[in-house]
Design brief:
Layout: H1 2-27, E1 46-51, H2 59-74, E2 79-84, H3 94-101, E3 106-107, H4 111-114, H5 133-140, H6 143-154, E4 157-167, E5 169-172, E6 187-190, H7 194-202, E7 206-209, H8 215-221, E8 226-229, H9 231-236, E9 245-248, E10 253-261, H10 262-266, H11 270-304, E11 309-312, H12 315-325, H13 327-336, H14 339-342
Parallel strand pairs: 1-2, 1-3, 6-7, 6-8, 9-11
Antiparallel strand pairs: 3-10, 4-10, 5-8, 5-9
The structure holds (2S)-2-hydroxybutanedioic acid.
């Protein structure tokens, strides 16, 4: 009887804490929670498990940690974001399933990986579609960008923000890549995306889908010869140490959809949603600058490490790559319609 009463009392106190906290938050424009929630158990606090596949010292790794710290600070520990980096909990593919099942509440996969659920997102994989991170942002906030984010909701994912990494470069252990012919028969690790698969087929290479955690071991063992990724991912995963050549091609953009399980999001108190969005906006701006800095820093490292031969794709070579890869645009339009392409800044009238 006593334990039932205790339980009831605990619940009433918890509800009172939540109500008071919410009222206080609204009245002081989202400043810190007045109550110390350190003593509350996991069941009494809000816990957000945030899983991702990259290292901690990457733009996504650092941003997710900063997000966790700021959320804890602004809610005085009432909301705890537990970050699981490096595929520690779930690998590519698995993390999306885990999110949809509610085993984790938040993930930030590369846009290519979302394409297994919402195929139209493969627009982001089209080669040479974007020339800067600003163009990517412009596209994401365009009317079709909004259609794309809405499609996530229909699949049980709530879109919170878009985080940057940077442009992808080609690396391999066989020869320098100048022209499309140089790709012939090279075996490439790719993310799961039909556009990426077709990209390498058009270049005469042999693409294999592999999860990110397998990139280094597979290249190290020589099971595959090549891959495409950003400077930060290349250095962070030590990929440069098992590859001999890199072409700085900036041919594709790698960015992340920061998403939550839609049901979990809808179940959060309004005040908490406001704080999370507020923090995310701040972290997103910080992350964009950081991504640029980290990629520049890792590029400088690669340029001076004498550990990989670097070729800068010339304008003439770029035209040859574009020519070889142009059929991708036609097949995308055939499958999903021209509107997704029309809003890419360089195609806008
Ligand atoms: C990859 O799989 O190559 C990247 O998407 C990893 C990441 O999340 O940056």
């Amino acid at each position: 009887m006593l334990t039932v009463l205790e339980g009831l009392l605990k619940k009433i106190i918890l509800h009172l804490v939540i109500i008071c906290t919410a009222a206080f938050l609204v009245s002081c424009s989202m400043e810190n929670y007045p109550v110390d929630h350190e003593q509350l158990s996991e069941e009494e606090r809000i816990v957000i498990r945030f899983s991702h596949v990259v290292g901690e010292d990457t733009p996504k790794g650092l941003a997710s940690r900063r997000f966790a710290e700021l959320v804890e600070e602004r809610t005085d520990g009432f909301v705890e974001v537990q970050v699981f980096p490096n595929s520690f909990l779930y690998r590519d593919g698995e993390e999306l399933d885990a999110l949809l099942k509610g085993d984790v509440q938040m993930i930030a996969p590369a846009t290519s990986k979302i394409a297994s659920v919402v195929k139209e997102w493969q627009v982001m994989d089209l080669p040479f579609a974007f020339e800067s991170a600003e163009e990517v942002k412009e596209y994401i906030s365009s009317p079709v960008g909004k259609v794309l984010t809405k499609k996530l909701e229909q699949e049980g994912m709530y879109f919170l923000s878009f985080w940057d990494n940077g442009f992808k470069q080609m690396t391999n252990n066989q020869r320098p890549l100048y022209e499309p012919e140089d790709f012939k028969n090279l075996t490439f690790r790719i993310m799961e995306s039909e556009v990426l698969e077709e990209q390498f087929h058009l270049l005469g290479a042999v693409p294999h889908v592999e999860t990110f955690d397998q990139v280094f071991p597979i290249l190290e063992k020589g099971e595959l010869q090549a891959q495409e990724n950003t400077f930060s991912n290349i250095v962070n995963k030590n990929i440069h140490s098992v590859q001999d050549y890199m072409t700085v091609s900036n041919h594709g953009y790698l960015g992340y959809l920061v998403i939550m399980n839609a049901e979990f999001w809808q179940g959060l108190p309004d005040e908490i949603q406001i704080i999370l969005l507020d923090v995310l906006q701040e972290v997103t701006e910080w992350e964009a600058e950081l991504a640029e800095e980290v990629n520049q820093e890792k590029y400088e490292f690669l340029n001076t490490c004498h550990c990989i031969e670097i070729h800068q794709l010339s304008e003439k070579e770029k035209l040859l790559w574009e020519e070889a890869l142009n059929p991708l645009y036609d097949s995308y339009v055939e499958r999903f319609g021209a509107e997704y392409i029309d809003f890419i800044p360089k195609f806008k009238e």
